[in-house]
Amino acid sequence: MAAKRGEFTALTNLRPAISDSLMPLFELPSKKPDTKIFEPAVNRTAKAAGKAWSNRSAFLDISKWSTDSRTESGIHILEYSFSQLRSQGVLVHPVVGYDRWDDPAYSQALINIRRAFPVTPCIRLDRETIKDDMYDLPYFTGRMSEIMEALDVNASNCYVMVDFENVSKTSVADLVEATEVAVAALRSMGFATIVVAGGSMPAGVNEAVNAPDAEGCIPRLEMMAWKAFFSAFKDRGVIFGDYLVRNPDASEGVIAPDANAKIRYTIQNQFFVVRGHTKRQDSLTVQHKSLSQKLVSSVHYIGPDFSWGDAEILNCSLGAKELRDATSMIAVDSSHHIHVVMSEIFEHQRQVIPVSQL
User: Alpha helices of the chain — where are they, by DSSP H?
Assistant: First the structure.
């Protein structure tokens, strides 16, 4: 998830039982164009993360930064951001980009963190690795062994993530097949716990609902694929992951004067998207109220007691709460999404495996 205000607000308002059942991956926001001073922004992100997730575990990645990025003090951006989040009480563990490892500055930063802190790294496999390297098992195994040896870890004290990234144009069958190949390869190396992630939300709302002031559903292919895999193999060591309500390839820092208001409401296997129109016509505050009214009157709305986000939607529809910007709606959408996903996972496991074995 993006390490931003909307996501942090959602985490702050989770029910304790939900917070105890998940481990977020914080993506450090990319630097602003033409900016050479990075530390204040990172410090603000770390402070916000601490307020939302202090004394809890999380992963930290810098995939939106170049692998040799350094702060104005000369410290590698991964080491600096890691130390700042730790200083704010977040028990972060570093993500290791399989495709980024060859940069000596990047790999050295990871080695430094591993030597200085009691961390459990997570090796993140990108979609090119899944498509190419994993089908050449000797090569893939050798490269994974090289990374783990440098970090002084093995399959028993290292996480691994199979990240399909943007799956909006992928079929469920192809995702399941690729998951089977990946899990088999990683299990042959001794990995017991494997995170499988992806995201189906399109980059633009027009790709989800092609007309302004309309509604529609889009499939959450990553969830469908995980359910199909779990039903076939009953493997509780394969953990579900996603990108919440954002597109995995979403651009950052782009000024969008014609951005449409929208609610991305997670339902079983799908997103129910309620689209407004350009904010040049009506403010987001005004549109969020009308969109919330549409959602609350739909068959998909679960009710205000389901999550903090659902309560905010009802309050917005009644005029009791104003949601004035896109970030506020991302917080609402993400809160609801996390609660739905956790419920969906547990319910599917209960259907497939007897309760006594869970």
Answer: 5-12, 16-19, 39-53, 77-87, 104-116, 127-131, 137-151, 172-188, 205-208, 221-233, 284-296, 308-317, 326-352
